[in-house]
Specification:
Elements lengths: L21 H20 L3 H19 L8
Keywords: Membrane, Transmembrane, Transmembrane helix
């Protein structure tokens, strides 16, 4: 492993246990969708767009298998 890799980059580092659970992804998806809706209702469109992108990311991780498999 390269010296510059830093903490969490090795085989026992971040993501070594298989990534986030489906429950966590579902909660994150629901939470970011609610935040996007609230921000949109307040007219804060840039922030609502970021939250909507987060909801899309969590939906892809949860339903489309994004991030699974070996590299």
């Amino acid at each position: 492993m390269a010296r510059w890799a830093g903490w969490g980059a090795g085989p026992a580092g971040a993501g070594a246990t298989g990534g986030p659970s489906r429950i966590f992804l579902g909660v994150a998806l629901a939470g970011s969708a609610v935040v996007a809706g609230v921000l949109g209702a307040q007219g804060r469109w840039p922030a609502a767009g970021v939250a909507a992108c987060a909801a899309g990311y969590f939906a892809l991780r949860l339903f489309a298998g994004l991030g699974k498999g070996e590299r």
